[in-house]
Amino acid sequence: MYRAEVFVSLKPVVNDPEGITIRSGLHALGFTKVQEVRSGKYLVLTVDEADEASARSAVEEMARKLLSNAVIEDFRFELHQVAERTAVESR
Amino acid sequence: MKAGIIVFPGTWSDRDCGHALGDILGQPIAYIDHRARRLEDLDLVVLPGGFSYGDHLRCGAIARFAPVMDAVAAFADRGGLVLGICNGFQVLQEARMLPGALLRNASCEFRCEWTNLRIEHADSPFTNRCRPGQVLRIPISHGEGNFYAEPETIRDLETRGQVLFRYCAPDGRITAAANPNGSLANIAGISNQRGNVVGMMPHPERACEELLGGADGNLVFQSAMRSLAALVA
Description:
The complex is a heterodimer. Chain A is α+β, with helices and mostly antiparallel strands. Chain A has helices at residues 17-28, 52-67, 84-89; strands at residues 2-10, 40-47, 73-81.
């Protein structure tokens, strides 16, 4: 059993109005040293795969097909092996 | 012209499209369930606006994999006319049937207001009842309508005449003030290279009778009717 933490973010060339708005909010609070804020999505998937290689290729395919849109977004993910019980409890 | 109107869970403009096409323009219509695997006896497929699958993950991302979408792609491959409005436009882009993507509005606000659209090309199946440069008044209603594509894609769209509608001032000038969502080059609607698949953020079905404040939207549907009539003739 594996837990995948998937990070989806807008490509650097794509304007991120949400990030810009958050940056203004931080500046208004006095955090004036914040240069840039990029917003994105954080997804946690628990996948029932036997080994790391198959978990990696499955998550890779999911991220490419559905979790991200290659026209505007990049993704990366981290894999962690989890015990069967932990995976069930975290549901 | 028989129009099939696709209904996903969360679609909200299906009945408005049915009203415009059926009640106002007198065309036969059918509501098509998202689980349908075949599209039969249709001349036009409309993907209406709304929040398919709650807009979760990304607008249109889940709807793009609904069973009916394979049939919509096959229909388009056969040359069938497909019109995606608002959420339907987002679905067509997610399905890669149209280029680009629609980002969060630059204002980060949901915008529901009348817009002016300049007709850039009047030779497409969805604009042939208009004049080039004509300004249509059609409302928008969206939070993610900020058209984005890579520079070379924008260039291709422009040189191939695929930009059909652009947000403009009432006199037709393309200005930043007339752009409600930050779309690149004020793009409000585009077609595929073949011209039979069109996506637009404004809602023509909400401008189908004077009671609603205007009837310019009918020209989009009537253009489809004319191009289909020309095929038969």
